Amino acid sequence: MLFPILIFDVALVAWSLHLMQEAFEKQEFSMMIAGTLVALAAAAMMVVYFLMRNCLSYLMETPYPF
Does residue 64 register a pLDDT over 80? Predict the structure, then answer.
């Protein structure tokens, strides 16, 4: 399950960098904020994934395979 989430996360980071590059070229502050929010959403998704993985493995009392 980590692989699709990781691919989606990398796509979000790439989109965020694209937004920030366009914002820098066009001198638009709102696009810079949008890029920052997309990057924060990607980071938050990974944090929630790892928290839920640990929580579910604790509740099921089985160690995660890696």
Answer: no
